[in-house]
Amino acid sequence: MIPVIQKNYTCTASGEVFKFVECENCRFKYVYRMKRTVRGEGTSFYLLDNAGAENRARSRAESELHNQLIHDCDPIPCLKCGWYQANMQAKIRSEYRLWIFWTGIGFLIAMVAFALMAYTESYGQKKLITEFFSASVACGFVGIAAILLRKLQAFRLHPNSTPAKDRIVIGKWNPQSLDDFENAQKIAASGPEQN
Ligand SMILES: [Zn+2]
Question: What CA–CA distances, in Å, run from 194 to 114, 130, 190, 191?
Answer without folding.
Answer: 76, 86, 10, 9
